[in-house]
Design a protein that fits this description.
3-stranded antiparallel sheet, elongated
Length: about 140
């Protein structure tokens, strides 16, 4: 009988721990996952990509995605759209079995950023808690 009471107490403690864990998980996960506070509009992602390419001249795909704070699986379509619209150029180099993709901005991409994206961001500034952290809000100055 004593052992049975002990087993029942242990089971109740486990149930309480599971409920506590569920409450903690529900409180913590929205802050870590894709909550609205970490959302960045597509137009700002486009601007960040073009500004980074202008800043560095040419970047490989991994560096570009990393510097802009993007996820390649989620944001590959944006890179493809920019390339298709002639705002950036993609070139590939084959080293053995590996193919490395490099991106460069085009003159029309730089003008698009200067004439459209920068005035847009002036009129509608990013939220302070955006995923971009305001890193790429600089102006394009090409001489």
């Amino acid at each position: 009988m004593r052992q049975l009471l002990f087993v029942i107490k242990v089971c109740l403690n486990l149930v309480n721990l599971r409920e506590l864990y569920a409450r903690i998980y529900d409180c913590i996960m929205p802050a870590l996952s894709g909550s609205p506070s970490s959302y960045r509009d597509r137009i700002y992602i486009v601007k960040d990509i073009i500004v980074k390419l202008v800043e560095y001249g040419e970047l490989n795909q991994t560096a570009l995605v990393s510097f802009c704070g993007l996820n390649l699986k989620k944001h590959k379509a944006i890179l493809d759209d920019l390339q298709q619209n002639g705002l950036i150029v993609r070139s590939e180099i084959t080293l053995g079995k590996r193919t490395i993709a490099f991106y460069k901005p085009t003159q029309s991409g730089i003008e698009f950023c200067r004439n459209i994206l920068e005035p847009y961001e002036t009129m509608f500034p990013r939220r302070k808690n955006d995923a971009g952290n305001g890193k790429a809000t600089g102006m394009l100055v090409i001489i």
